[in-house]
Amino acid sequence: MSAKGERSSERRAQILQAAAAVYARQGIDGARMDDIVAEAGLSKGTLYWYFDSKDDITVALVEEVISGEFAQLRQLVDADGTVIERLERFFDMHTAILQSNPLLGKLGIEFYSIAGKLDKVHELVRQYYEEFVAVALALVRQGEERGELRIERPRELAVNLVALVEGSTLLWAIGIQEVDLAQQFRNAIALLFDGLRA
Amino acid sequence: MSAKGERSSERRAQILQAAAAVYARQGIDGARMDDIVAEAGLSKGTLYWYFDSKDDITVALVEEVISGEFAQLRQLVDADGTVIERLERFFDMHTAILQSNPLLGKLGIEFYSIAGKLDKVHELVRQYYEEFVAVALALVRQGEERGELRIERPRELAVNLVALVEGSTLLWAIGIQEVDLAQQFRNAIALLFDGLRA
Amino acid sequence: MSAKGERSSERRAQILQAAAAVYARQGIDGARMDDIVAEAGLSKGTLYWYFDSKDDITVALVEEVISGEFAQLRQLVDADGTVIERLERFFDMHTAILQSNPLLGKLGIEFYSIAGKLDKVHELVRQYYEEFVAVALALVRQGEERGELRIERPRELAVNLVALVEGSTLLWAIGIQEVDLAQQFRNAIALLFDGLRA
Amino acid sequence: MSAKGERSSERRAQILQAAAAVYARQGIDGARMDDIVAEAGLSKGTLYWYFDSKDDITVALVEEVISGEFAQLRQLVDADGTVIERLERFFDMHTAILQSNPLLGKLGIEFYSIAGKLDKVHELVRQYYEEFVAVALALVRQGEERGELRIERPRELAVNLVALVEGSTLLWAIGIQEVDLAQQFRNAIALLFDGLRA
DNA sequence: GATGAATGAGTGTTCATTCAT
DNA sequence: TATGAATGAACACTCATTCAT
Fold this sequence. Notes:
homotetramer; 198 residues; Tetracycline Repressor, domain 2; 9 helices; 0% strand; elongated; DNA-binding
């Protein structure tokens, strides 16, 4: 019997996609295995053929989402253009993805909440932010090296950049009317960097 | 029979305090009524004498926490000092409260999560942010009127200010090591306002 | 909250009696909690208020049955009459009890089977046999001291006495037609002791 | 399509052997088809090609074990030597087999337990005991005819002989320390027959 | 007001069995 | 013959809520 991890990744993806939809709609605790099964068009037995437990699904889903984010973050460092241009493109992409599926925001909030209960999820979320901060820091330093920016406290700037992204996304996900993500991010860049341009 | 809302407010407070502790520790869905009862040192029957349901407790707790935040926010507008001084004092207080009880951050995350399920909570959280943004906007305008700041897009600045606070708090609550809330907030103010001083 | 062990012993007895009936009828593995609940005329929640789990019920039931057997065994040593008379009375009682409830035999077989899975049950059953052998040995020695019997290998006689009782009971419980427990036990005594009478 | 009973008997034997090991180790109810499949090194589909169901396997296994016992029992009647010598040899063989595989005792107990649920197994076990008693009776009568023994109640003696064997085996299988099967059986013969020798 | 025993619908998980390949 | 993915009914256990005392 092969390990479950090795089993048909299409089916696994199908289940994770269904779980994501149900989690976003009903919350993780409000999601019943029967709901995920129905959403995926599978039987309960099949679900358990691919995953050991609900927690197993949750962790796999967080892993998948976060590994997608990682890929995007890594592109940021090596792409062309000035630092500010790249940040703007990154924010545009971030905004487009969130707005293409309004449930993604809710899903993110569920991830925060479940991180308090599942150590593995907590660790994944932490790693994601460490990576995000690290990438932001690398970018900021690039800007300095290339003479684009003059920065006194690069580390705190990096954390504030990440906090702005996450905070704005949170407000938007909660449904604060005044938040237009695209506008908001552009203004954030202007605020943070206008005084820092070389 | 009088409405439950009018019953001994000490007992209600005692229950809400217990619920807050249990919610923060175990998550709202992970909290059992028995846990709250044990934490409060009461019996189950007594708890239900004061509250109709678990959701009722949750809503009341969110109301209580948010009304405390409201009080703080309102002081911001009328206090003495420059806008930046007042923001610094507000952030110091915010930091002190969070650090005095490390579970408060977790509790906040639970509130986000439950907002997706309980409409009343969602509305309270939304109102809180609306208010926060409104206060930030009033402050920013005060700064402009008094000639302390020159601001082009006050509304977006206000939202970004709130986003920075919430984002930083979130990163801190998740446990990102590099986040020192006090430092972070001071740096945020410097970044946002250095270029805006008159 | 008091420990479950301290809770109303009438309800506990009621549940154990129901469990005994269902276990004997359907086997332990074939018994559903719903069946026990229905047999006891209680709700599932109530059952779990008094017992932690199905295993908990099983162990408590074995304890109860075996502690009853212990009581009978102890009387054997101190009762009046010759050793052989006392054994005959004991066997009569044993027979009467088994025949009064034909499911008791099945229940005993279930206990053997579950002993392989629940360490606590295994230990209880083992203790019961140790005690049974010890009592048989004490009786045999009394017989010798009082000059009623002349015995060469008292320990092995004791074990064989117990083996005869258990073996006969087993054959009877399985439903071997030719086994008339009362006759069988009388004949067993005759066979074992006729050659040993002083 | 040929009846399953006619299919490759090697595969069937392989499966039954695996089932015996798993049943003894985990109990029949605790044994999963997957466990048997893993133990046999086969796939689930293959197992179901040879057997219709778990009960089918169980019944076949009981049949196999009991038919082996039958073979031994029949040899008893026709072998050379006095009745007591033959019983001693039979008991030695019985002991050797049990001690060669300590799980056999557990397996026997599982058979008793499942007999309460599967009529076919009950019937097989009953037949086995009927046969065992019949053989014991034949032996006893042989002893009488040949002038080796003087017996008053041959039928009850036969049942008691079987009860002693089964009871001793049971005590041993449960793990009572003091039971040394070989010693025990020798002592049983001495007790039962010493007074009966012609 | 206060207690804690009682309720039962709901949930994650298991596992014998089936069947397309 | 052989495989192992797929199925779904069944089950132990949970927990918010009720109510007799």
